[in-house]
């Protein structure tokens, strides 16, 4: 644990703690929350204020009447949409490139958003909490930002391990003594986010190890797989993953359902990209299954 904390301390400027998120998550998960409490928190964050107002006044939500204050915007959008804006605003830190992993600028961000959209579709179908799944999926690879910052001294060994057939997780553990999932989980613990999120991130490559949070973690795992199937992966081809049968079994989903999720994700992702102004840097992808 100390080794992981040391990596986080070295790179904390790359992933500053979002002070508003631990307070907003409990509020936005309740449908009967007083919108004024949400506004009190959001109003002190410039990016969130701007994004909430922009989305509220988009063609999809405007209804022909412009909104110029947060309370009216939050009331019009509803807690679920505001929650998504908050999580995507925090997740935008992924837009920086992670050259050590072979990740270009925006690639990790694109992958994370696509994973979140895919995971949310799965969660909606099986009646799992969509907000929690979306949050875990957006943040599932945050540990790569931390480890990438520490990779300068061992990048060649890392690449050699991958080239000799080691999995990404094995290569990370061989060079760092930990992997990106463990680092990401520890970061969320230090941010004081709900424990279920940290568990889902720690075990998103192996949902069976997630204990009582297996279903949440399996949703993130499937979202991650859907993103790769759509072409929103990154780095060396050996980084690509396969869908674990165990994750499908946990959620009582047939493998034949996956192509449908992929197509639904294509459609939903286009809506999300347009609504949240994510189009710059997003080129068309060809998915395969």
SSE layout:
Blueprint: H1 2-11, H2 21-28, H3 35-42, H4 46-56, H5 70-77, H6 79-91, H7 107-126, H8 130-138, H9 142-149, H10 155-163, H11 168-176, H12 180-190, H13 195-202, H14 214-229, H15 245-251, H16 258-275
Helix pairs in contact: 1-9, 1-12, 2-6, 3-5, 4-5, 4-6, 6-8, 7-8, 7-14, 7-16, 8-13, 8-14, 9-12, 10-11, 12-13, 13-14, 14-15
CATH homology group? Hypothetical protein af1432
Using the coordinates shown, work out and report the CATH topology. Hypothetical protein af1432
Percentage of residues in DSSP E strands? under 5%
* Order of helix and strand elements from N to C terminus: HHHHHHHHHHHHHHHH
Radius of gyration: 19 Å
Please estimate the helix content.
55-70%
Q: State the CATH class.
A: Mainly Alpha
CATH architecture: Orthogonal Bundle
Segments where pLDDT lies below 50 for 5+ residues? 236-240, 283-289
Cα distance, first to last residue? 38 Å
Query: Main β-sheet: number of strands, strand sense, barrel status?
Result: none
**Which structural category do the helix and sheet elements fall into?**
mainly alpha
Shape: globular
The average pLDDT is 80
Number of helices: 16
User: What is the β-strand count?
Assistant: 0
Domain unit count: 1
Structure description:
- The longest helix is centred in the middle third of the chain and has 20 residues, at 107-126.
- This protein has helices at 2-11, 21-28, 35-42, 46-56, 70-77, 79-91, 107-126, 130-138, 142-149, 155-163, 168-176, 180-190, 195-202, 214-229, 245-251, 258-275.
- The protein is mainly alpha-helical and 289 residues long.
- The protein is globular and about 60 Å long.
- The protein has a single domain (2-275), classed as Hypothetical protein af1432.
- It is built from 16 helices and no strands.
């Amino acid at each position: 644990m100390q080794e992981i904390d040391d990596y986080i301390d070295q790179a904390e400027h790359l992933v500053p703690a979002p002070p508003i998120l631990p307070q907003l998550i409990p509020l936005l998960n309740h449908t009967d929350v007083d919108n004024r409490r949400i506004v009190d928190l959001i109003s002190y964050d410039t990016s969130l204020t701007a994004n909430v107002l922009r989305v509220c006044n988009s063609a999809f939500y405007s209804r022909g009447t412009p909104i110029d204050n947060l309370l009216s915007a939050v009331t019009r959008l509803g807690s679920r949409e505001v929650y998504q804006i908050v999580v995507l605003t925090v997740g935008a830190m992924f837009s920086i490139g992670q050259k050590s992993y072979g990740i270009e600028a925006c690639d990790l961000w694109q992958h994370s958003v696509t994973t979140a959209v895919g995971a949310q579709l799965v969660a909606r179908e099986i009646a799992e909490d969509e907000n929690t799944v979306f949050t875990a999926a957006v943040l599932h690879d945050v540990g790569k930002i931390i480890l990438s910052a520490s990779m300068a001294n061992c990048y060649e060994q890392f690449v050699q391990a991958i080239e000799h057939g080691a999995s990404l997780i094995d290569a990370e553990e061989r060079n760092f003594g930990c992997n990106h999932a463990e680092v990401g989980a520890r970061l969320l613990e230090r941010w004081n986010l709900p424990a279920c999120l940290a568990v889902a991130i720690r075990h998103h490559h192996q949902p069976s190890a997630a204990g009582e949070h297996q279903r949440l973690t399996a949703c993130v795992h499937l979202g991650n797989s859907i993103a790769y199937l759509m072409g929103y992966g990154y780095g060396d081809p050996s980084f690509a993953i396969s869908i674990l049968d165990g994750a499908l079994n946990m959620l009582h989903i047939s493998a034949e359902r996956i192509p449908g999720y992929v197509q639904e994700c294509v459609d939903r992702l286009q809506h999300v990209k347009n609504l949240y102004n994510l189009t710059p840097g997003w080129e068309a992808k060809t998915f395969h299954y």
